[in-house]
Amino acid sequence: MKPIRLVRGFLTVGLWTLVSRGVGFARDIMMAAYLGSGPVAEAFLIAFSLPNMFRRFFAEGAFNMAFVPLFAKKMEAGEDAKGFANDAFSALTAVLLVFVILGSFAMPWLVWAMASGFAGDERFDLAVLFGQISFSYILFISLVALLSGILNTLGRFTEASFVPVLLNLMFIAAMLLADRLGWDMGLTLAWTVPATGIVQFAFTWFWARQAGFGLRLSRPKFTPELRHLAAVAAPAVLAGGVVQINLLVGRQVASFTEGAVAWLSYADRLYQLPLGVVGIAIGTVLLPDLSRRLRSGDEVGGRDSFNRGCEFALALTVPAAVALVVIAVPLISVLFERGAFSAQDSTQTALALAIYGVGLPAFVLQKVLQPLYYAREDTRRPFQFALVAMAVNAGVAIGLMPFIGFGAAALATTLAGWVMVWQLWRGVRGMGDAARIDARLRHRLPRIALASGIMGGVLWLLAQALGPMLMTPGLRYGALAVLVVSGILTYFGSGGLIGAFRMADFGSALRRRKKD
């Protein structure tokens, strides 16, 4: 089994995630133009969030965190990894089929739990209808997550990372068809959800089969390995439930302000760009790499993986966070303000984006720290930490809602994220050498912060100078491009000069990628 090239893996996953997020932006810009922040948009966003929420609960957030380390260890030891994967595939399918049926019947209660502020108006009935149509997506995308975990463990990151691109491309095609043919836009989007799940599943199953893991459905068997998997996954499932409760609290707070669900959703999509590119890349590559290194007793290699993950994450996330705070208004107004999306929508969405930006480094650091626990099959402590973060989230969101309105939901998410990081960091200090910061990371961290601060100052000055152009329809895209490119050049230029990073670190990884 070939070793995972860490930085190359980060870049491969990151680049494909960047493509996906870019196409996703095009999707959201079209959705904002067609639907704005009106009732159909809010109803669809709530309906689509339901299968996505449970996907993270069952697959990416819990099942895969338990499955990947066990699968990686079986691969490393030369045991029957395929048989284990097939048993997991069949068991997960059986559980999800039951869940999809029950969830479809319980849709009115699920929508009420997500957005009780919708009760009594057209948004509620629309969300129930859209939710019943789209809920089966959880079955297909959860199986995609399992197959992607297999491909990632094998070091085949490109195939798994391309999957989200398919979803966004299909949404764009569906909206264009609906506009041209006069279809109902809300229903078109709802039916597109399960269609994308089927296509994504077929794609990942094909590539898993090409890699020698063409999994087949069989009668679920509760083998000793699956019992162990369930024991490891149970606390992670509970932790995933806590995270989803945090999201529920935020959406409940937002549902009582007309348009706020859409404002938070569009802001979430924008800060998810750096979070997805960096955080998903880190989490995807680091967990199987750490699992294999710890299985073979390579503490030195594990420490290097952890530190390079931290370095890669912060070198790209801290400047992104500064930019989201400093130029939140230009970003939102230029990207979204058209059609049904008004200037007021831009202002409120930019407020949420700036608050989320402050929490961006915390959200990414969680992706770096959690694999240290999951690689050791320790899912209990992250669950306990998540309970504390949930209490912080609920207290801030509900407590501050009467004073600052929907912004309390974004602020609660950010504060809870930093509380989670603080707990995770305290917990890893007893894990030995693999969890210790090395001299290179200590040297570079303050320089990353300084370079980000320099970039933030330049962005603020440029935003003031380009203000009129950013408001002019024919010039605003060029002005935003100047703003973004100037920020990138300033950060990488100043960072390279003061030693925040070496461009050769990225260049050598890219050269290896092209060579392979």
SSE topology sketch:
Layout: H1 6-35, H2 39-77, H3 81-105, H4 107-114, H5 122-134, H6 137-153, H7 157-161, H8 163-181, H9 185-210, H10 224-255, H11 260-295, H12 299-326, H13 328-336, H14 343-374, H15 380-404, H16 407-428, H17 439-465, H18 467-470, H19 476-498, H20 503-515
Count of distinct strands: 0
Major β-sheet, in short?
A: none
Helix content percent band? over 70%
Q: How many domains is the backbone divided into?
A: 2
User: What portion of residues belong to β-strands?
Assistant: under 5%
Number of helices: 20
Element-level helix/strand string: HHHHHHHHHHHHHHHHHHHH
Query: Separation of termini?
Result: 16 Å
| Shape summary | globular
Report low-confidence residues grouped into runs of 5 or more.
Answer: 507-516
Measured on Cα atoms, how large is the radius of gyration? Answer: 22 Å
- What is the residue-mean pLDDT, rounded to a whole number? 83
Structural class: mainly alpha
